[in-house]
TrEMBL record:
Keyword Isomerase included in the entry's annotation: no
Pfam families in alphabetical order: HSP33
Record's keyword annotation contains Transmembrane helix: no
Keyword annotations: Chaperone, Cytoplasm, Disulfide bond, Redox-active center, Zinc
CDD domains registered for this protein in UniProt: Hsp33
Species of the source: Reyranella aquatilis
Protein name: Hsp33 family molecular chaperone HslO
Top-level lineage group: Bacteria
Amino acid sequence: MSADDWDRVLPFQLDALGVRGRLVRLGPTLDEVIERHGYPLAVARPLAESMVLCATLATSLKYDGIFTLQISGDGPIRLLVTDLTSDGALRGYAQFDSWKLAVALGSGNEDAPDGYVPKLFGQGRLTFTVDQGQHTERYQGVVPLEGATLADCAHTYFRQSEQLPTGIKITARRSDGPDGHHWHASALMVQQMPEFDAGRLDVDPEQREDDWRKAVILMASATEKEMLDPALPGTTLLHRLFHQEQPRVFERRAFAARCRCSRDRIDRVLRSIRREELDDLRDKTGRVAVKCEFCSTEYAYDDADLDKVYEPAA
Ligand SMILES: [Zn+2]
């Protein structure tokens, strides 16, 4: 596997069609995030797909801060959260009900079925948030979970948010090799460019429509196998799909699994709670243990540590 082809976004442009797009492929980052949680396959695959969707949408925006994708519903997976900072730190977690999950999958089924959204998430919504720090406005987009796949739900979002016509294809799989599990996820997105940006003010609307349709058909012709093939470089895949359109491929950006939690942050959270209330959280040894949902790191506090946290500021 060519290591510098994964955990990256590859933006491209099809000048002849007035379309831009991106190919995002995640590999080792997914292994790190997913294996740390030890989720069942039927939770891990939706998480992998939502992480690649998050990375695709986030890198289509100019922002300086945190892009968050959240799916919540009344199904076996109650909540799935993934976020990406503008410097490439990606993380994610899920909350689910094991019993409901087993019932929804049926006996003998371990993996999420294709078109799993209604079955695993139920009625719910998909939320995108861009947080650029204290003194800026938060942007938020919310759409109901409509459709069988995450790509369908993303299409609902593109339509409702009145973006330029956008198409996306998402896939994720776990492969089992002699050295354990490996995850790969991939997303391909195409988006019509504003006429002015594309330098196509003289193109008639019908031609523009045909060009757009052609881009969508070419994108959709990508097979799951080639999107996830560790041995197939992203640039080769793009040239294979769009060779007649001579895609221009731009500089790639990398992602890595990295959590933003720290002992300082947990200290601050604890300080916002009255110390007496922590008694319910004590483990057998009397320590208060707080686990980061994103990365499963555990922060433990004994009484001496808590004295320091709650010490009045000098
Ligand atoms: Zn963490």
